[in-house]
């Protein structure tokens, strides 16, 4: 009996191995478009969380440069002992948006100095030029400013001087110098020399090597990572900061445009939101404002997707509401934003855009009203926005919130209401474990093809790994890759999709996982970044059905597939996910009257260890492998690696 059992077990094992080696056949109907997809489908979502703006993509190195934080001296310390009254924080209410400044009274000419710590230190690179600048007025004759960059051991690694001209009105001064060392956590000393008085403000330090070499611009490496994705859109400025903890701290776009020295700083709502990661020095200076957002979108070829407050504060915090009879101001903000983006230079807001350096319109096409708001109070306010926007700007598509979750009572209510309202685009969010993404690939198969489009505005797969950079694992990324095949397969319904959050600073994060991690000197993409990039750089114009025994390849045997055709580049693009620990042999049988070139580009993102993540030490631990392959006739016969995402691009004649 024992010998028979062993023989049967051996036979079963042999048949299993044989089955595993038998290719699986998928049918690709290249000539049968299942619908159109937007070439702008894959985008990015930006929110000033995790020090994404100040201390991140906005390249300013001085923290609290205008002394407007709740504690005016936060980020600064005095280097010398001075008589009482030498340093005075003044508050001039006539100065729009920036009332505070530092007045220095030094009749005896004693040595005075202050030091700024930067945003968790200052990232300084050897050989690069830096520009120190400030505003000043009423400087006594002969007064000078001497600045020093310091490394972690307080050694001077760069210095410069400038003489302050006398005058009663505010004027600017600047000097440039080269850094002698690379340091991750540098500091800035500012020495005030000479006897007399002076009033200073906007004490600033920027690298000269910014994105597109714009003066006082954006951090080059961070924008480049976005540009490399070729995103179809950028959604900004959030996120929960749009709502604010209360309405007083909501994001108000009009306060983020115009001269930078007049923009009104506010506390960042992520300052104290998470008790385990307090950041009392986290503010929004709006050096990165709506103009800069629009400009960045234009730079990288992405559509701008701004989101505005709908008259509701965050419902998890104060849940403040603007009464309906006071909502006009909020609606007017939306109308004025459209004018700022698209209006002629003869209009009020179009002129401001032109004065800031961009006479041509930004060609805004869509606008979000509210972020993760819910309930009848949201529907009521959204309806008021929709009525006015449809009457005055029918060309602008309206994006509306479906709440915080992809299911449940709130979602069901909003989904029904927004569809009855005939809203243009419904914004759905899902932060869920990998199992949810794997099991939800067919989520949009049965959505109404004639109803509103869907914006997967915020999504990320959350593993049980501890918070921090290591939470951005290959397991999370591969589950997202599988889910995205479902979005692409239903791209006639899902018009847009973006991962969230975008950036995380290793010394200043509040939320994980994140798409891109940075420190003061470097930036790298996570496994999820590599997945998003493969999708966004391999988009198409038409959905091409991929079937397995007549059904979509949507999770059976942990296999997932989608396919698109790009009518512009004349290419068939197949995406395939093998979520198994073993390789799998697959035949893609292409049904088409068109001729296919035999040479194809095959890109594989794979790793047998689902728990791995990238890091500053190993930023390319998981990266795409690109190879040219030859396929015979109209059959793609190949073996796909364990735990892999593969993109095959084939020219069509």
TrEMBL record:
Keyword Transmembrane helix: no
Keywords recorded for this protein, A-Z: Glycoprotein, Hydrolase, Signal
Annotated Alpha-L-arabinofuranosidase C-terminal domain residues: 457-644
Group of enzyme by EC: hydrolase
UniProt keyword annotation of Glycoprotein present: yes
Reaction catalysis annotation: Hydrolysis of terminal non-reducing alpha-L-arabinofuranoside residues in alpha-L-arabinosides
EC number: 3.2.1.55
Gene3D superfamilies attached to this UniProt entry: Glycosidases, Golgi alpha-mannosidase II
Signal peptide coordinates: 1-20
Pfam families: Alpha-L-AF_C, ASD1_dom
Family note: Belongs to the glycosyl hydrolase 51 family.
Alphabetical list of PANTHER family matching this protein: ALPHA-L-ARABINOFURANOSIDASE 1
Name of the protein in its database record: non-reducing end alpha-L-arabinofuranosidase
Organism (species): Sphingobacterium anhuiense
């Amino acid at each position: 009996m024992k010998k028979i059992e062993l023989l049967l077990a051996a036979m079963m094992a042999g048949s299993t191995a044989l089955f595993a080696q038998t290719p699986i056949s998928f049918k690709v109907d290249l000539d049968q478009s299942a619908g159109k997809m937007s070439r702008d489908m894959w985008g990015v979502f930006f929110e000033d969380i995790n020090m994404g703006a100040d201390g991140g993509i906005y390249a300013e190195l001085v923290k609290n440069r205008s002394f407007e934080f709740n504690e005016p001296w936060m980020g600064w310390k005095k280097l010398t002992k001075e008589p009482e009254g030498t340093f005075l924080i003044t508050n001039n209410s006539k100065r729009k948006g920036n009332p505070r400044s530092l007045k220095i009274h030094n009749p005896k000419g004693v040595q005075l100095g202050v030091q700024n710590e930067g945003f968790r230190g200052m990232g300084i690179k050897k050989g690069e030029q830096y520009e120190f600048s400030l505003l000043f007025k009423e400087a006594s004759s002969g007064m000078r400013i001497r600045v020093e960059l310091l490394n972690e051991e307080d050694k001077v690694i760069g210095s410069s001087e400038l003489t302050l001209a006398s005058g009663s009105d505010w004027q600017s001064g600047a000097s440039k110098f080269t850094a002698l060392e690379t340091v991750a956590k540098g500091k800035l000393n500012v020495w005030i020399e000479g006897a007399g008085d002076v009033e200073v403000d906007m004490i600033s330090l920027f690298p000269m090597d910014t994105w597109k070499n714009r003066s006082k611009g954006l951090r080059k490496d961070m924008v480049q990572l976005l540009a490399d994705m070729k995103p179809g859109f950028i959604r900004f400025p959030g996120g929960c900061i749009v709502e604010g903890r209360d309405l007083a701290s909501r994001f108000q776009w009009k306060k983020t445009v115009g001269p930078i020295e007049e923009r009104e700083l506010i506390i960042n709502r992520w300052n104290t939101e998470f008790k385990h990661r307090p950041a009392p020095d986290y503010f929004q200076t709006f050096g990165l404002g709506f103009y800069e957002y629009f400009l960045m979108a234009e730079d990288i070829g992405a559509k701008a997707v701004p989101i505005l407050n709908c008259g509701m504060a965050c419902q998890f915090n104060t849940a403040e509401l603007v009464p309906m009879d006071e909502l006009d101001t909020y609606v007017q903000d939306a109308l004025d934003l459209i004018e700022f983006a698209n209006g002629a230079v003869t209009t009020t807001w179009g002129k401001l855009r032109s004065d800031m350096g961009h006479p041509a319109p930004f060609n805004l096409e869509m606008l979000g009203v509210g972020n993760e708001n819910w309930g009848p109070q949201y529907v009521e306010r959204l309806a008021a926005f929709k009525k006015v926007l449809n009457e005055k700007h029918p060309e602008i598509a309206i994006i509306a919130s479906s709440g915080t979750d992809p299911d449940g009572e709130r979602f069901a209510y909003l989904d029904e209401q927004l569809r009855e309202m005939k809203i243009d685009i419904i914004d759905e969010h899902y932060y869920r474990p990998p199992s949810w993404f794997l099991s939800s690939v067919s989520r949009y198969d049965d959505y109404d093809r004639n109803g509103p489009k869907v914006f997967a505005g915020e999504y990320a797969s959350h593993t049980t790994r501890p918070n921090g950079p290591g939470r951005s694992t290959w397991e999370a990324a591969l589950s997202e890759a599988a889910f995205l095949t479902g979005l692409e397969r239903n791209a006639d319904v899902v018009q847009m999709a973006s991962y969230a959050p975008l950036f995380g600073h290793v010394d200043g994060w509040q939320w994980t996982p994140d798409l891109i991690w940075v420190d003061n000197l470097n930036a790298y993409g996570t496994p999820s970044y590599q997945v998003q990039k493969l999708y966004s750089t391999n988009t198409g114009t038409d959905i091409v059905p991929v079937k397995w025994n007549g059904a979509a390849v949507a999770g059976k045997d942990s296999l997932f597939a989608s396919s698109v055709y790009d009518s512009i580049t004349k290419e068939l693009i197949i995406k395939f996910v093998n979520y198994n620990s073993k390789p799998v042999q697959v035949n893609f049988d292409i049904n088409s009257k068109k001729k296919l070139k035999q040479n194809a580009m095959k890109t594989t993102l794979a790793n047998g260890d689902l728990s791995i993540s990238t890091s500053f030490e190993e930023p390319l631990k998981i990266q795409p492998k690109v190879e040219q392959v030859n396929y015979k006739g109209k059959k793609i016969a190949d073996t796909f690696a364990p735990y892999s995402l593969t993109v095959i691009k084939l020219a069509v004649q």
